[in-house]
Amino acid sequence: MLINETDVKVRYQETDQMGVVYHANYLVWFEIGRTNLIEDLGFNYADMEAEGVVSPVTDLDVKYKRPLRYGQTATVKTVIQEYTGFRVVYRYEVYNEEGELAVSGTTSHVCVKKSNFRPISIKKHFPDWHEAYQKAMED
């Protein structure tokens, strides 16, 4: 299984009044990990969008286990948990510098035409992505 590991330095503006990373910022980190994983596969969202297709989040699940604070470095590990040819579920694990799991989560996505938000088949419209996703789950 292909795993992308991305380090993220916690910036001051990402923390809340309690001095810990504000919960919504993990979603940005998930997107960074997801984008990097897709680039590891040899693709990028800009090419998909240039063809009039976008990939919105349809479901989100996040579990917070340990806080991260300003100045620390987090490691975001991203994998493709599930792929059906139509829907993709990415799994994320965010670790602190001690290697302890701080946050875990998943996001589900489908591809839709930007013009009308009607779903399309990844398998049919992007066969190279389809093959790469299947292979990434096997490795």
From TrEMBL:
Domain of life (superkingdom): Bacteria
Amino-acid biosynthesis in keyword set: no
Entry keyword set: Hydrolase
Molecular function (Gene Ontology), one example: fatty acyl-CoA hydrolase activity
Pfam families per UniProt: 4HBT_2
Record family assignment: Belongs to the 4-hydroxybenzoyl-CoA thioesterase family.
The protein's name: Uncharacterized protein
